[in-house]
Design goal:
By secondary structure, the protein is of the alpha/beta class. The protein folds into two domains: about 130 residues, Periplasmic binding protein-like II (D-Maltodextrin-Binding Protein, domain 2); about 100 residues, D-Maltodextrin-Binding Protein, domain 2. The chain has nine helices and twelve strands. The strands form three sheets. Strands 5, 6, 7, 8, 9, 10, 11 and 12 form an eight-stranded mixed sheet that branches. A two-stranded parallel ribbon has the order 1-4. Strand 8, helix 5 and strand 9 form a beta-alpha-beta unit.
Length: about 260
């Protein structure tokens, strides 16, 4: 009888010990889905491992919030459809009135992306944002990239008239490195990544101010279950902006110097 009681006491003690020593997870520790498209340097695979600016951003958000973030990759048009249906919880994108009808956006932006003029380090070009200063130079552009109203009007009015069209960002960098143009107009992070991959990043610099700059926000599906996720992320975004955590991530993907 005593032996049975002792055994029962021992098993109870072990059970309590196991419960109290188990990992303590936050109530926010749940899985959510982030959907994006595979595009360097934002989210891409290298040596079998996914890397990129957006990958670093979601890793930071996961660490600070306690959410486990699973990633699904889709073509960009599908990313928006998947999010609209609620098959994904969130993505990163630029805000517009049309998109605000479809998605809920974070209160504050998490970063910025935009297009810039790039030239060779050796070129001494005077530029303070006035496009008239570049009117006599040859410029490489991408035909499908939206450079913003000011640049688009300068192209349409032929203020910028010596234009060379490239079918890809890689071709834009080639135009500049081979000195077929004085300048190229491209996305800051994409151009920096391509230049680094081709080993020519130290030959290029980007001119400031930018041609066009846009804020990047977190876009959420409007399904009710995402309300808590948005609230939790909205709490940590100001801290990550103020302590420079977001800025440090963006800096990793800019290997070309500014003016």
């Amino acid at each position: 009888m005593l032996r049975s009681k002792a055994k029962l006491w021992f098993l109870t003690l072990i059970s309590v010990s196991m419960i109290t020593s188990a990992p303590c997870y936050s109530k926010n520790k749940q899985e959510v889905i982030y959907t994006t498209t595979e595009l360097a340097p934002y989210f891409y695979k290298e040596d079998g491992i996914y890397k990129g600016l957006n990958k670093d951003l979601i890793d930071l958000l996961s660490k600070e919030s306690g959410y486990k973030i699973n990633v699904t990759l889709r073509p960009w048009a599908r990313v928006q459809k998947v999010l609209e249906r609620g098959d994904s919880n969130f993505s990163f994108m630029l805000k517009s009135p049309e998109r605000e009808e479809i998605f809920n956006f974070s209160k504050e932006y998490i970063g910025q992306d935009g297009s810039y003029f790039f030239t060779l380090i050796e070129e001494q070009l005077a530029y303070d944002g006035n496009l008239d200063q570049l009117s006599n130079f040859s410029i490489g552009i991408h035909p499908t990239l939206n450079y913003g109203q000011r640049m688009n009007e300068a192209i349409k009015s032929r203020l910028l008239k010596d234009l060379h069209y490239a079918n890809s960002n890689e071709d834009l960098v080639k135009l500049l490195v081979h000195k077929r143009v004085k300048l190229i107009a491209g996305l800051k992070y994409s151009t920096s990544y391509i230049a680094r991959q081709k080993g020519v990043a130290d030959q290029l610099r980007f001119l400031t101010p930018p041609i066009n700059i846009s804020n990047v926000y977190i876009a959420y599906s409007k399904k009710p279950e995402n309300k808590k996720l948005k609230e939790d992320f909205d709490k940590i975004i100001p801290k990550l902006r103020q302590d420079g955590a977001f800025i440090e991530i963006y800096k990793r993907y800019t290997s070309i110097t500014d003016k």
